[in-house]
Amino acid sequence: MNLEGLEMIAVLIVIVLFVKLLEQFGLIEAGLEDSVEDEMEMATVRHRPEALELLEAQSKFTKKELQILYRGFKNECPSGVVNEETFKEIYSQFFPQGDSTTYAHFLFNAFDTDHNGSVSFEDFVMGLSILLRGTVQEKLNWAFNLYDINKDGYITKEEMLDIMKAIYDMMGKCTYPVLKEDAPSRQHVETFFQKMDKNKDGVVTIDEFIESCQKDENIMRSMQLFENVI
Amino acid sequence: MAAGVATWLPFARAAAVGWLPLAQQPLPAAPQGCEARSDEVLVVNVSGRRFQTWKNTLDRYPDTLLGSSEKEFFFDPDSGEYFFDRDPDLFRHVLNFYRTGRLHCPRQECIQAFDEELAFYGIVPELIGDCCLEEYRDRKKENAERLAEDEEAELGGPGGAGADWALPPGSPFRQRLWRAFENPHTSTMALVFYYVTGFFIAVSVIANVVETIPCAAGGRAGWREEPCGDRFPLAFFCMDTACVLIFTGEYLLRLFAAPSRGRFLRSVMSLIDAVAILPYYIGLFVPKNDDLSGAFVTLRVFRVFRIFKFSRHSQGLRILGYTLKSCASELGFLLFSLTMAIIIFATVMFYAEKGTSKTNFTSIPAAFWYTIVTMTTLGYGDMVPSTIAGKIFGSICSLSGVLVIALPVPVIVSNFSRIYHQNQRADKRRAQQKVRLARIRMAKSGTTTAFLQYKRNRGLEDQDGAERPALSTRSSSAFEQQHHHLLHCLEKTTSHEFTDESTFSEALGVISLGGQTSRSTSVSSQAVIGTSTRASSLISSCCPRQNKQRRAIRLANSTASVSRGSMQELDTLAGHHSPGPQSSRASLNAKTHDTLTLNCDSQDLVAAIISIPTPPANTPDESRPRSPASDRGEGPGRPSSGSSSSSRGALRNSSLGPSYLLHNAVKISSL
Hints:
The complex is a heterodimer of chains A (230) and B (671).
Chain A: H1 5-25, H2 32-42, H3 52-58, H4 63-76, E1 81-83, H5 84-94, H6 101-111, E2 118-120, H7 121-133, H8 136-147, E3 154-156, H9 157-171, H10 183-196, E4 203-205, H11 206-215, H12 217-222
Antiparallel strand pairs in A: 1-2, 3-4
Helix pairs in contact in A: 5-6, 6-8, 6-9, 8-11, 9-10
Chain B: H1 3-15, E1 41-46, E2 49-54, H2 55-59, E3 75-76, E4 81-84, H3 88-100, H4 111-120, H5 130-155, H6 173-182, H7 188-210, E5 214-215, E6 226-227, H8 228-231, H9 233-257, H10 261-266, H11 268-285, H12 290-301, H13 315-326, H14 328-352, H15 364-375, H16 388-406, H17 409-463, H18 478-494, H19 501-513, H20 515-529, H21 531-541, H22 548-575, H23 580-588, H24 602-611, H25 614-618, H26 648-669
Parallel strand pairs in B: 1-4
Antiparallel strand pairs in B: 1-2, 3-4, 5-6
Helix pairs in contact in B: 5-17, 6-9, 7-9, 9-11, 13-17, 14-15, 14-16, 17-18, 17-22, 19-20, 19-26, 20-21, 20-26, 22-23, 23-26
Domain EF-hand (chain A): 99-134, 135-170, 184-219
Subcellular location (chain A): Cell membrane; Cytoplasm; Peroxisome
GO biological process, one term (chain A): regulation of potassium ion transmembrane transport
């Protein structure tokens, strides 16, 4: 057969249409493998927390407080877990002027103790228990965990810089005095390291951190601030 | 603030511990006064249905009724619950708002009722969730449009075609002429003119059409047929002239009568009128030159625009035009997509058929014709592809044509249906409006009558203390008694009295025309209006407070009068017997001319009319308020009390009564 250019195109189009038609009828199944996976993803994740007594034993909240906490939590997240997107959204509602996504990311990692990408109610409760009812040591421990981004036990200058930048981002543009590019956070990091890094090796370990904080009066006093949040 | 924020706030505050080691300045103290969260269950009783919820749930929105201390006003300490006397079905949605943070709009409830509930509970409608927001807005807009239409129809619509009430007699000729043009039903002359123009439009169009039919061939031309227009040129010319004369006259009259000439000249209808008559005049003044005859022929085409003049006569045509205008975007989309498809397929077909010899597809524009004919499934068959590729692409072309054309059609159809139904609704409403207004007027008059009767009862008790009239036992409710007492207090405050309509109009006639002529004018003017009104006004005006018997009978008949008045009024309206003013006057007067004989004979009439001036002389006001605009400054008629002004249309109608009457009275007295 001597098919010319256009005729070939025409025949091709016809063949393609024919194949699509067969697909519609289900006689040919193209892309079978993808569909099953898609189905699986559609199912929502559900998570049920531990029993109330267990949580009461593990955390420092009373039963009533846990009940109130869980009701609020379940109302917001019916599936029982908070993923990072939701976390960022929630946090951004509190800080509308600035960009709180970076800090929320760090915070999420601090709460997500088992690092499975979602914060369940237990994680939530444990975190809150430490922050609100824990000893000063535990709180400082938690803070250290927050700053230590890669969880290797040392806070380096880069990590601290990231954290500081994230915090300053939350302030936004309209501040007084005006926030210049990077200078305030850098300066802040320098101050922090001067205070905390005792042996001047460029990193802050957990012991250095706790020791320096315990010596600082301001920090100690402000630790009591958030006790009656719930 | 969303519900979620309130729940997460403690968490955000707790997370602030992370800032503590970094703080350069000491952090402020925490706010006191946050007591330990003790959560309790509240019971909210809405018309008997009990809803229970946590206190925290309601506290999420502190600027609403349920979230603030305002709900304490509704607290019932005996039962320990909050009682609201509202709709329990709608409360369900309100409570769900607190629970989920999203306000949903119920689909089967009236949007107005829902709005009212939201207003009561202090919830802003903007909080409606996205899922229901679209529909809420649409329904609200529809409602608002309908209410606006209602109001417009009630007011008579300024210059609108819906107004059927007659202009006040003193309006200038120009206004009446415009009125006659816009609404042919107002007078017979207008109707006649309407039909005449319609007839001539039809004649003109038919003449244009018939002109071109080949008549039997004239003998001298052999077997050649010629069109009728050439065979009877004089006849057609005369007919054309007559039509054009009528159209020109109509156009000039409309131009003269238009309230705003500039706007009239720019309007579509006037443009059509102008285009319809211009070709004739141009043809008249241009000499029959061979060079210009081609242009002359073109001009004749424009004569067909006369058919658009029918749109003044046919509402359906207007609706069609309006639909097309409102669907302009869909039509534009259709046109655009069609053009794109035509160009694509024409190109493809041209190149597919290029190789064939003796092909019709000589160029791409030539292929346009084939594409259009195929896409619209006309298929004339004058251009047909012969190659295989051409045939394949041709079939794809026809299939896609069907799709592309079918897509925007439902949108246009739904638009047309919506506008058409709107029009139907407007017509129906106009018909029902009169009945509605009549009923409203009757209800108002009932109140007035009741009040006057209450006053007479009090008058009775004041004058003859011992004797209690037997017939004043028409037991009025506590509400009525208090209402009447209130009106009475107002009278005493302003030292003016409420009267009913007839007495007031009598007073008008008496005061402005002097005592002597008043008798004759009032009698004769009553004769003008009709015996029924005359009898009733005599009944109400005579026998004021002097004759107990007549009073008693009047009391008994006042109830009958109200119901009769309504019947009569509806009959009057249905039969289009009289314009507005008369029927409104009659509404208040008892038209019991059949059963009730004249209680007063002529003697009493004189005495009564002479005795009229005394009471109403100082109290020239009416129980019904009148809009000052319609009061043409004749006689004292400023109302001192303005109770309700809901149906302004009715009031305007009725308030025209006395002034209309006065006009007539003046005319008669000058005879």
